[in-house]
Amino acid sequence: MKKKYSLCLYYVLISLLFTLESVVYIGDPGDQFEFTKMANKFSFFEFALFRYKTWSSRLLIESITMFLSAHYLIFKFFLFAGMIIFFYSLNELLFNNTKDYRIKYITPIFFLVSFPSVFFTSAGLIATMTNYLFPMISFVVGCYLLKLSNKWFIISSVPFLIFACMQEQFTVFAFLLAIYISFRNLVIKKEKLSLNFIPLVTCSILGLASAILSPGSKIRVSLETKTWYPGFDKLSIFTKVAKGFLETNRVLFLSTELSVIFLILLLFVFVSLTKKLWRVTFISGSLLYILLTNKLGVPSILSALSRLIDIQNSRNNMVYFNWFENLFPLFFYTFILLLLAYITFKSFSDYEKGVDAVVILAIGYISRMTVSLSPTLYASQLRTFTPLVFSLLILSILLIKEEIDNLNVIKDCEVLVK
């Protein structure tokens, strides 16, 4: 019981630290100032319908953004309380059967590394957090309630899942996760599908339908095309996906704006060394070396990618796209992603855990790739990487769990030998 209280106090302290770090940016220019003006013109639900018809399918997310933009103190409380609940729910989702409380102290630290507060400032702190961080928190809480397998908890999960699935990227995340769980249980394990997943499947499908059918989404794409990406509507779907693929991997591997990628590679090196997976050690160590040398400005294979981007930017033509010219980055990034999938799978002793980890990583990546269909591809900045970084956060925690399990096995073997 004492350990449980200590862990809860730890959640409170880390949540307070993150909240205090975040409010440093609360006065920076952002969308919250426009939302504050709208708060004087619309009621809560009236604004949700207005935005659904004229701008976005996010409904209540839009209304809550408007409300919190006009109430800074309430926003700070929501952020603080939400982080406490998030840490607890995520740990219970991943470690509900573990008796070792020490591993649960890792999650908040890894969150701070993966999601520094500046990550959520590109559209203003309040607007960005309400549209990206809060849906992520809501998604985790909803999944945790589903896992409890109690009728009332399952019912309670619905509002959280509805809110999460009003955000397009987490709708895709939830939908793909539901498909994978259904396939794994029905086809691979030959088990009956639990009724617990019905809310997840239903909410994700409704979220996808809402995003596609929303009249506001079509208006928004039209306006943002003129503002951010003239000629975007003339690009083929294949070109849009290719551009999204290149931009996603540019941020991941070339500009290295996401510190979590270094954390993941370090964990791969650490886990593979203790498990004597020398091939994984070599691959992850090589990738880490390439990224670090590029970060330090030392010439490497990534220098050619930087040069190609400079050439393309000098044209000042966002519509132009030459497939032959981009063969090298397309091939190189695909190769790197395949290597990451391989070392992820090999880092887990259990086959099923390895597959689960790769799928979680793929789901986060695909969810990020949905921004390829938006004219704000190059303007949305880091916030649209939230589902991918979330997947990387989960992977980093699972790697630590795998390492601890491996060390426990070694310890048990040593005891038996003695």
Keywords:
418 residues, 0% strand
Please count the beta strands (DSSP E, at least 2 residues each).
Answer: 0
Q: Helix and strand string, N-terminal first?
A: HHHHHHHHHHHHHHHHHH
Helix run count: 18
Helix content: over 70%
By secondary-structure content and strand pairing, the structural class works out as mainly alpha
Shape: globular
Largest sheet report: none
What does the average pLDDT come to?
A: 91
Distance between the termini: 33 Å
| Sequence stretches where pLDDT stays below 50 over 5 or more residues | none
GO molecular function: transferase activity
Protein name: Glucosyltransferase
Organism: Streptococcus thermophilus
Keywords: Membrane, Transferase, Transmembrane, Transmembrane helix
